[in-house]
Amino acid sequence: MSQTSIALQPGNTPFPARLLGWIKSLQYPLLGIAGLLALWWFGGWLIANDPDTEAFAAFAPAPTFDALVYLVSSGSLWQTIGSSLYRILTGLIWGVGIGVPVGVLIGYFSRAMQVSNVPFQFLRMISPLAWMPIAVLAFETWDAAIIFLIVMASVWPIIFSTAHGVKRIDPNWFKVARNLGASGPQMLKRIIMPAIMMDVMAGIRLAVGVAWVVLVPAEYLGVTSGLGYAINDARDTLEYDTLAAVVIVIGVIGYGLDWICAQLLQRFNWHVE
Amino acid sequence: MGATITLDYITHRYRADGPTTLENIDNRIDAGERVALIGRSGCGKSTLLHMLAGLLLPSEGCVRINSHQVTKPSAKWNMMFQKPSLYPWMSVQENAALGLLFAGMGKQEAARRVGELLDKVGLHDKKDVNVQSLSGGQQQRVALARSLATDPEVLLLDEPFSALDAFTRTALQEEVPALCAARDITMVIVTHDIDEAITMADRVLIMSQNPGRIVSELRVDLPFPRRSHDPEFQTLRSELMTRFRDTDDGLAGRKSDKDDTQKKQPAVRRVV
Ligand SMILES: Nc1ncnc2c1ncn2[C@@H]1O[C@H](COP(=O)(O)OP(=O)(O)OP(=O)(O)O)[C@@H](O)[C@H]1O
Ligand SMILES: [Mg+2]
Fold this sequence. Notes:
The complex is a heterodimer. Chain A is mainly alpha-helical. Chain A is built from 11 helices and no strands. Chain A has 2 domains: 3-57; 72-267, Orthogonal Bundle (MetI-like fold), CATH 1.10.3720. In chain A, 81% of the residues lie in helices and 0% in strands. The two termini of chain A are 12 Å apart. Chain B folds into 2 domains: 1-76 and 154-272, P-loop containing nucleotide triphosphate hydrolases (Rossmann fold); 84-151. Classes of the chains: A mainly alpha, B alpha/beta. Chain A binds chain B through residues 170, 172-173, 175-183, 186, 190-191, 194-195, 197, 270-272, and chain B through 53, 55, 73-75, 78-79, 81, 83, 85, 87-90, 98-99, 101-103, 130, 132-133, 146, 150.
């Protein structure tokens, strides 16, 4: 962390030196990526040279990147990504809308924590995908059912992280605010929310991770759009290069979502190092 | 106008079947007066101060400020604690302006009001700094500005300087009474430090322990600023020390049979 931030410091350093520093800071991540590619390439080579698996040779890097270029240039990819992002964002909004208030409640009132702890820990351990049959029965559209699964995946880390944040609040902060004449809503807005924003974001980051992982298998079912559907569809039509390309896209978007969360986490972090 | 504080036969137990923490505290603090409360650790000083702030209600008796009973906290009677407890996600100025914001004042007006105060407590060049980068003394000055910003009638201080270095402490021991005098604020300070009590207060109340009672009081009629090497200061100090020790001896001497005697006493005192 410190090394990157020093390298990226936009001080008085001349541009070429800064660029050089930036590249330097990237050398290890690039090494990791190169390693992964090499492994992939080697796997593809093995598959292609084994008569038993020859049919799957399109999983190798070269065909995959061709397929990826085609997906991007033909424009069909954007709609697929759009459907998936719509589902995950809607699910997350519900997850935050439910998780943060519940987390504040059980963090603030220890009785609420005692009551809810066992049921919540129990529910949390159930794979969100296990809710699929119920979700299908309960919701009219496949979209709504998938969003429900995303909510079930994302709500727990948000609840627990928020509650943890509230419990960690210095009791003196409450005392001082009460002493200064804070009303209940003012306490919530000016003291509790800013104090726990960091924990809320950490919970959201975890939630995004779980939700993204759950989304793809959830999209195997019923719907005819989204990245999960694209994978399933490519498998059915034996387009293994497209399948691998979609996997790449899933990984890249997942990484991007996590990166955004990490940036927001930084933004709300009030600790001075 | 400062506010008159009346302590009306306050008795307190934290639990109904628990020990009596405070017993028959009965006193009157005049408007603009500066009073120090001293006593052993655990004798109930903070408990009493929390009651003055409306953060705690006594089991019996009541606190009145200008003849209104104190039942809840208010920015009109403000408390400063040993720890500054600033909010780390706010700048110095935002911290100091918090009480005004709670009172519904606009951000700009609050900033202007607080600006003058921060000048007074010597933080004019730190307004936009994050409070976590301040020294302990500077943080306590922000807390002071925060307490004064709402124009309180009463300022309550619970060992506010005990965690500070000697220089800052000495400076604040002079500044705070002066600020209170200038703004006509009634001040009550709880302290372990006899010199601090004499430096800051017009009157010193001495509390005994188990149960907490005000057993003695001493007037301090010295001009400000007070210096601990003045002979008069030293006379007062030894007088206070003697009385302070008396509360202790009394306790130690009667330890075995004290429970009976002290339980009967309140009834007697109430009649008197
Ligand atoms: N919230 C509480 N619940 C129960 N008992 C308490 C509580 N707060 C304080 N006490 C008890 O009441 C007594 C007085 O405590 P208090 O904090 O008022 O003492 P103090 O004079 O301020 O001590 P110190 O000088 O150490 O700050 C102590 O015996 C303490 O254990
Ligand atoms: Mg105390």
